[in-house]
Request: fold
Amino acid sequence: MNHVISKEEKDSVYSYMIKNNDKNYNTLKLIEELGELATILTQSLTKGAEPTKIIEEIGDVKMRLKVVEARYPAELIQRRIDFKLKKNLKYLKQEKYKDI
Reply:
């Protein structure tokens, strides 16, 4: 089965979902996918879940996150990401990250 989709097709799907799905629906779908990812990650630690299931759930979360993310200013999101990365870089330099 061919899973390749062009950039134009991707943009078309995202655009439709952003414009036509109710924002509560998009938010609920993201929450659902986040829950499924949390479950499979927990199972990977306790029961050895299949890596392919983790990959599937990460993909589902990223797709839904992109739809919800479109409602907010990209610059502010990036600013927050940069802040968190700088904070973590500081921890790395201070050697606060150690093996447990």
